[in-house]
Amino acid sequence: MNNKVKMQFLSIPENVGLARVAIAALAGQAPFSLSEIDEIKVAVSEAVSNAIIHGYQARSDGWIEMTATLDGQGLSVVIEDFGVGIADIEQARQPSFSSDPERMGLGFVFMESFMHGLRVESTVGKGTRIEMQRFARIQGALSRDVQ
C-alpha cells in the first residue's frame, strides 16, 4: 500500500501526542506489529520533542513539519523545524549529550535504535531536518532484503 501524510503544527508539547497518533495511524496500514508501531511512535516523539525543546528552545510559535510516506518498502518519516539548528551533529548524536542539562540526551539514541535509518541535517540559525526509515517485514524478512 502507498500513502503519504504531510502535517504542519506548532512547537507546543501537546503536539508530540498529535504526531504520535498520526504516525501510528499511518504505520497501522503496513505490516508492522504493535511493538514495531510503538517503536516508530517513540522515534517520532523524540524527533518532535527535540524540535520543540532544542530547535525552538521551548518557544510555542515555531512550526514543525512532519511528512510520512508509506510504500512497499515500509515507512519514511521526515521531521523538520526552522529553529536554532545544531552546531555539532556528531556531538548531539552521542548518548547522554544534551544542550539542556535537565534532559537525558537519549533522543537520537532512541531514534537510531528503533528505526532502520537515520539522517540528520542541520544549519545553525535555520533549523534541523531528521529523516528516518523503518522497513516492513514481509514473510519474516525485512522488505529491503526481499528484492
TrEMBL record:
Its EC number is 2.7.11.1. The keyword Nucleotide-binding applies. GO terms for biological process: asexual sporulation; negative regulation of sporulation resulting in formation of a cellular spore; sporulation resulting in formation of a cellular spore. Residues 35-138 form the Histidine kinase/HSP90-like ATPase domain. Keywords: ATP-binding, Kinase, Nucleotide-binding, Serine/threonine-protein kinase, Sporulation, Transferase. Signal peptide: none annotated. Belongs to the anti-sigma-factor family. This is Anti-sigma F factor. It comes from Sulfobacillus benefaciens.
